[in-house]
Amino acid sequence: MTNKYVYNFNEGKKEMKSLLGGKGANLAEMTNLDLPVPPGFTITTEACNRFYEENEKIWVELHEEIKKHLKDLEQRLGKSFSDEDNPLLVSVRSGAVTSMPGMMDTILNLGLNDISVKGLAKSTGNERFAYDSYRRFIQMFSDVAMEIPKVRFDNLLDDMKEKKNTELDTDLTKEDLKKLVEQYKEVYSEEIGEEFPQEPVKQLELAIEAVFKSWNNPRARVYRKINNISHKLGTAVNVQSMVFGNMGETSGTGVAFTRNPATGENKLFGEYLINAQGEDVVAGIRTPQEISHLEVSMSDVFEEFKNITRKLEEHYKDMQDIEFTIENKKLYILQTRTGKRTAQAAINIAVDLVKEEVIEKEEAVLRIEPNTLNQLLHPTFEQKALENAELLSKGLAASPGAASGRIYFNAHDVVEAKARGEMCILVRQETSPEDIEGMVSAEGILTSRGGMTSHAAVVARGMGKCCVAGCSEIRVSEEKKEIRVKDFVLKEGEYISLDGSTGNVYKGNINKVQPKLSGNFGEFMEWVDEIRTMSVRTNADTPKDANQALEFGAEGIGLCRTEHMFFDEKRIPSVRKMILSTTEEERKNALAELLPFQREDFLGLYKVMKEKPVTVRLLDPPLHEFLPTKKEDIESLAKAMNIDYENIMDRIEELDEVNPMLGHRGCRLAVTYPEIYKMQVRAIIEAAIEVKQNGFKDIKPEIMIPLVGHIEELKYVKGQIIEEIEAVFKEKEIEVDYMIGTMIEIPRAAITADEIATEAEFFSFGTNDLTQMGFGFSRDDAGKFLDEYVNKEILERDPFQAIDRKGVGKLMEIAVEGGKSTRENIKLGICGEHGGEPSSVEFCYELGLQYVSCSPFRVPIAKLAAAQAVVKNI
Amino acid sequence: MTNKYVYNFNEGKKEMKSLLGGKGANLAEMTNLDLPVPPGFTITTEACNRFYEENEKIWVELHEEIKKHLKDLEQRLGKSFSDEDNPLLVSVRSGAVTSMPGMMDTILNLGLNDISVKGLAKSTGNERFAYDSYRRFIQMFSDVAMEIPKVRFDNLLDDMKEKKNTELDTDLTKEDLKKLVEQYKEVYSEEIGEEFPQEPVKQLELAIEAVFKSWNNPRARVYRKINNISHKLGTAVNVQSMVFGNMGETSGTGVAFTRNPATGENKLFGEYLINAQGEDVVAGIRTPQEISHLEVSMSDVFEEFKNITRKLEEHYKDMQDIEFTIENKKLYILQTRTGKRTAQAAINIAVDLVKEEVIEKEEAVLRIEPNTLNQLLHPTFEQKALENAELLSKGLAASPGAASGRIYFNAHDVVEAKARGEMCILVRQETSPEDIEGMVSAEGILTSRGGMTSHAAVVARGMGKCCVAGCSEIRVSEEKKEIRVKDFVLKEGEYISLDGSTGNVYKGNINKVQPKLSGNFGEFMEWVDEIRTMSVRTNADTPKDANQALEFGAEGIGLCRTEHMFFDEKRIPSVRKMILSTTEEERKNALAELLPFQREDFLGLYKVMKEKPVTVRLLDPPLHEFLPTKKEDIESLAKAMNIDYENIMDRIEELDEVNPMLGHRGCRLAVTYPEIYKMQVRAIIEAAIEVKQNGFKDIKPEIMIPLVGHIEELKYVKGQIIEEIEAVFKEKEIEVDYMIGTMIEIPRAAITADEIATEAEFFSFGTNDLTQMGFGFSRDDAGKFLDEYVNKEILERDPFQAIDRKGVGKLMEIAVEGGKSTRENIKLGICGEHGGEPSSVEFCYELGLQYVSCSPFRVPIAKLAAAQAVVKNI
Q: Where is the PEP-utilising enzyme mobile domain positioned along the sequence (chains A, B) (predicted)?
């Protein structure tokens, strides 16, 4: 840290962003590019941090440094503060390292006092303007720097307008405004106990303190939390001489993008107002004109501006968002920054810039925030429609997209309503595998419980279906078929709308916009594929999902959850028969009924995937998930299966678990009932033999054993499996290649991965469960308090969304090292939900995994993240 | 591995136990001590293992080696096989490294055939005896070596007796026996398709094969599993020349202990039968005589025997169990081994041997299996009474002791029955904190679910109360108030008996024996205390438990579970009010009601513990555990609290969790509701101030924060706590020392222990939860399949009983290293249930922990284990 806390604009450059803030660095850069930037200086972010150390006061040395720079500014401009003819006025603006639009405070026209107001009147030839500016400055300063309630000034203004019997500020005369200035100053001294400061240096210091303090105002803190910005960065303060766009018809102010931020089209895009200040543009009193109109009204200025925008874009090598003011035909550039844009525009701009040879492909790949691809793949709400919508609540953005429909509270009702032609939203406290059909039929899913990896979230993402999960504020009564939230009660059949990309839940039916994929998207993804080194597979259980994923460029299946195949109505009776069997014989018979179904399942997947790798996870959930829970369902099951109701209840009770997550599931089932996995493996291998005989010579199923925690478990189950595979080979008189591997999802498995690799040919990280057990967080329950953890800054991010590198990531690292130490070429992948989350994908790259696997709609996102990881790590 | 597979007795020594087996090594040792051991040789355990590699056949080289040793034996004894005058006969016995009494097979009188039977008749002068021996040998050989059903021979014997119209074998004449021999040989050739082997070498090899095979018979495998003996050790086979105790009134056979195995008294203890073989003693046909009687009947022999026993005890430095035979006034020693003994005898013998200067204190400490101390601390069933008892089932030996009582199915009924003066057993599917009062009133607790660390098990151990948990075979219907097991239905009020040391559950009321602590116990424990370096604390929540633990020598409290204090009927209303509060204010009021109770709790503990360390764990369980679950209880709560029934139901539903183990509990509660811990900490500190003011200058409470997984959690909660402590100091104008530490019970905490130690002054390992999360086993559910895991040898031991060193232990190791790397002198302890399990205590010693903490009744066990760890690691 240096002792220099204030930089003239010509002392900085764009690389000094962390010291000068984004705005300050850009002002410096533009100054050094000889662009017409009103001169000024920047007080650094380090000063902001020291300000907090100094108990939120400006210390002596900083005071001196500021004074010195003010003097310097006066000299350079030939203007001085409190001048009766041509006074110096400045703006004071925050400037964080990362732009936080509208989050912090700004003060304009600082330097106005009882003397300089006259100078301003003289230099602009507009006394009314000068006093209106003074009035506004007092109010802004009082509000921002001194926290005097704005309403006190507004009341005076309203009184004055009432007296003058008008509704418009503009109808007030300069005399009225002079009076208001006096009244405003009185309010100030009443509230503060001091006269309104006439000394510009005093004004400035109070303003600087206010900006520093605004770094920690609640809305700024919330913004940073949402956007993952550290609270420790601090903000810089930019003090810049004022220029005026409101000096008549040869003045004006505006904003322009060097390219179209909605479409990416390479054409200047923007608007301006003649005879106006920036705040007038924001206030929207007059309708601004399109930037192209400037060519007509002031062609020289337009020409100069166009050249400058081109220069800036070339210099920054990206589309710029530029603020400018024209003061008496003189153009000033007030700000430039990289322009925000839609995902579609981002792709088009990046591709165009490569073609224009401005940037390399690698740079283009870095330009797109992977998650924004969601905008390209899913419908979104129409912006206009959204503005009028009633926001009911906000849950977790569990699966992106926008959906509207009538609410129904169980799968059955959704299926029926859909059959009647209705659009439905399935609303549940939480979903379970029994709800699958309802989820398929619904436009979207809303749950009041569960986190980012709850059943609803995982399944919805798999389907590419919009889902808002864990919306705990909403009370769902499945019995009464209604939801209560705030003062609303919504009954079955009423409309709601879900935004799965933000987690917002709205009342009513909101218009949607369908995504369009431009040709540039395809080209961009080709570059992504060229650059990235990790494969991207998909989690898919059906040929339909697999097809969808292939369209998005999936290179294999990393996780086929076989249990999803068990819920089909043709199969569930056999599954239940299997579970309710009391002898191995009965169980084998029930499994024999399932075998042809399972074989067809795998056959379907193999056919779609051609010879791409397919990893099949053997049965994972506890058996009780397959049994009905409601009395009437149990009764009809009893009847159908010709078993005593009591007996079924006994069995259900026996299977019930206190902590099902840590219960009798995964390979533990196979230790107790080896015949289940044997049936599954037989189906996998028989199907593989069939496609091999039909030309897929290289078919090589990857059989994955879940929930292994101990090498002996794996040995035991693998032994059983191989026995069955050998039996199939013998029967069919033909063999196929296959691999046997395991999930690494239990901490003990990670810790003892060296042992486990003696038997496992591949590891696939199940980071959902590894996070659950590593943290001791139940994904179904933690939603309730994880929010609070993030709000209280205990956790930076929900570890179910992004891999917790220090803890869960460390377990992964131990496992990777252990696995490689035993089996040098062990295949390593991830199939947890994190496999589609960009920062987690990057982490997987750093760990040296060969592939990630994610739900179909996340495949492009994962690919982009994988390519970015390569570029970042060059 | 050498190529030598057969050792003459004089080639071995007692240190060669792993090669020669226990019996073989001792026979060798005795041979070399010049004791009168009938000569013979031992086939090694390595031969047994190779036997299995050779597909369970004796290979050529071994065949040759055996033949060579047989020849040698014939030469040494001047006897030969198949001799018509004085034939050599041998016994063939198994001999494992660790004694497995009765588990494997033995064949006597091998070498008898149609010729040698005549020789035996001649040499013994007893033709009837010779043919009876031959008959028995054929049957034994056929049964053991050839697996011919014994019943076929028994039928022939019965036919013969019927024909002779007698019930006694002894009434059969030598002619009858000769006939039987012929019939037996016919059975043999029918069954095997070959003549009965006349060649002794052939007989011997078949017998050796049979003994090797018996190593893997089911009862031997089960025995090894129960006793934690590896299946890989193999058994040796001892071939020894026969001597006969049944050659008339100057012959006999017997067994003696060098000291009394029941009391430890230093006096020869044993019995013998004149004119008998070993099997006659076992059969119990005649009543044996006390060993002292031998002095009267054969004083020379007795004198020799006494000298030999003294010599053997001196040589082995431990009480010996010796088998002997007298053949025509000549004494032979057939076997010596360390004698089994009761815990009481073990202590007395060990102490006596130290006083006799035979062994050192360190050796004495190693002599006692720590778990056997349970016999000294808890009542046991009377052996005789047990023999007639009906065994209903077997569950987990969750808390030692013996208890009988009438069964009741809920806490309320137990309390009422106890008030009527009944002895009760509380029977539940599983217990919950609501059952505490019932557990206090019951003699013992039986549950059908849950493992070694289930609620029932943990609480019962804490109380020193007998408990059998997870007895899954028993179907408990709490509604019908009955249990069903096998064909029995037991109704409320019927008697059962529980053995908490074995897990056995019996029908009816069985007499019990109360333990007696001899003076030697105290002296022994003093040596233990001298030797051990780790402290032993106790887990105790009440002054009563703490007092009990102090009596057993506890050196502090390692875990005070504050939630146990919340269930008292005076407090639970306030607890519930706190939980049902909707505002912080309401919650604070409810907590204020609890504060005086909590203060009294800690005051009570401090007073009992004097200035010994007391670690208080702040509230740990999820809040829903404190709410009622039955409709009527909820209704009465609603009435009592004047809250809507619906509202309470809403709140209960809201608090309900899918996986409570991984839910909103521990320090997570304190993140959401900081005021709960603040109240508890205030109580801890105010109580400490009070005792400090009353003379306990060195009081220093250790405040333990549970369920920390992330450094930021700890920081946050610690910050809240310290704020409250400082407030108390200010109010009271006096300070006390205190420490703040954390449980290490979440894998992530272990992994990031280096970070956590920056804030934690001590770590206490919560190995129950660390095992749950490390393995992904719910302790409430895993009972169902863990048995199978142990049976299928997937796990060596239930990891909730003994620390899994490779996985959970590795996490502990990482945590110890991490903790020390940040805070060199960090205090390290364990308060999980493993803290009282000997092998786990040893592991904690190896890890370098400073203390273990366990339930009061386990304190002596933990102390002994801690001392043994020191001795073993010298």
A: 423-503
